[in-house]
Amino acid sequence: MSATRTRDPRERRPWTFYALATLMVLFLAFLYGPMLVIYLLSFQGPDGGVTFPMVGVSTWWFAEIWKPGQMANIPVSFQRSIALATVVCVITTVVAVAAGLGFRRRFPGSGMLFYLAVASLVMPSLLVGFGIGLAFQLFGWKTDLFTSALAAQLTWTLPFGLFAMFAVFNRFPRAYEEAATDLGASAWQRLRWITVPILLPGILGVALGAFTLSYDEYARTTLVAGSRNTLPLEIYALLSSSTSPTLFAIGTLTTAISFLVIGTTLVFILRVQRRRAGRA
Amino acid sequence: MSAAQDTDPGTLAVPAAVRPRRRFRLSSRAVSWLQVTPLAIILIAFFALPTFTFLLVSFYDYDRIGIYPDFLLDSYEEVLTSAMTLRVYVSSLKFAFMVWGITLLLGFFIAYFLIFHVRTRAMRTILFLACAIPFWTSGIIRTIAWIPFLGRNGAFNQGLMAVNLTDKPLDFLLFSPFAVTITYIHLFTLLMIGPIANSMAKIDPALLEAARDAGASRWRTMVDVVVPLSKTGIALGSILVFTQVMGDFFVVKAMSGGQSASIVSALATEIQAMQYPPAAASAVLLVLFVACMVAGMMRVVDVRRELVR
Prior knowledge:
The structure holds 2 protein chains of 2 kinds. By secondary structure, chain A is mainly alpha-helical. In chain A, 72% of the residues lie in helices and 0% in strands. The radius of gyration of chain A is 23 Å and the shape is globular. Chain B is mainly α. Chain B has 15 helices and 2 strands. In chain B, strands 1-2 form a two-stranded antiparallel sheet. The relative contact order of chain B is 0.12. Classes of the chains: A mainly alpha, B mainly alpha. Chains A and B meet through helix 1, helix 3, helix 4, helix 5 and helix 6 of A and helix 1, helix 3, helix 4, helix 5 and helix 6 of B.
């Protein structure tokens, strides 16, 4: 998104602008419409059902999540998901940033590793879990959250993080690093005081991506989570059994958490960029 | 790849005497290796080895209790001769091509709008984020969000009846191939928009002006300048969308109402029945199939050269 237009802003917009703007608006409506429906329905009154009309407005179905019974596993699986996503986020960020730095030169084996990452990204998700599950079985190990499930999620978040880092490095001004070296900075000083601060918005983006991908991940985790389910697995288990708006309430809550994480990160990135622009 | 690096001797303007503590320097190649080692270890241990495991198990013997090391081709014979295999491949491919075509058109034009029509950087960022934010929320929730929307008494049918477009609710909307396709488009269009917009952003606007000055119509400029220059993004987006649809089993399960099966949902059924060797054989088949499709698309463009610069 770095292209700068030099066009006169008063120039008349062509008809294609209006056609594509309409497409954009329709697409956004398509993207958000169904989600808005379930957010609304999750505030359904106690006598309401899973479709419109709304029978009053209440937070009854949200309260239902914490009542003992059918939903008992939701709060605890939520904590597990957050814990797992945090671990995945930290590992992915560190490993992807390091690998991004490494990929800036060609090295023997770089092609192989690149295609391994591509393969890991495009591999049908369930098969990754299937392979890990089988390997654990052959070795006689028990699958668990922070072993097999963590491994399965990393095969998904790491390639994403790596490709995001490629995009970040594409826009990275090399001259600053060269200047630091010329001024006598050691490799470590340069990384700590030049490279990482300049890349910080991109690195935060990678961290955000890793966290949310892990927090919502289902297909890779399902066969290897062991006996302790994550939140998406619990929600999936509820799909067939629950026909009350509680499911929507869970959906609204988990989306709210996602929005909170996304919003906080974006605000932080924006502040970093603004401070930088202010100094320049 | 060629510019200065921490250990590249060419840019080292500081004489060695200034920093006497450093007794040796790693070669730039060794530094790169150290930096990518964690990634390599994780991908080999958690991706390559498990893939090898199901390749191995696909030749195993099995009964109701367990699996036994062997070298049998029975599982492959079973998979390749079953009518089910052909049926699910045809069904998944049909979805994959339909969704690929629609998301490609949508993704291309939305990326085109974002890059070439939106004039301020802030507006472009806001619109791009608006497209991207749902991608960061749960796919399961976004899938089930269509149920109250498309259902018989759903919001869409109620809306249609309210404006008298139909007098009775449409039945084909939910739990149908239509619902599956809509959900895929909802989930995966961003995978097209992102790479294509990234490619388009690298196009020098002067090229478009040159085309216009040389008398090209808006359409010709798009077809002859923009499309060729964004083909990396198109290829990358196509790979992502195609493989996501081919590897899906959740959407088909939740939205088709049992009318359709996908390759992976059939496979999941076998896994649940603990028939690991036949499941592994169909997994190997699917991996080969997807790998051939992806290799074909990668042939069109050198994705690596475009990405790593």
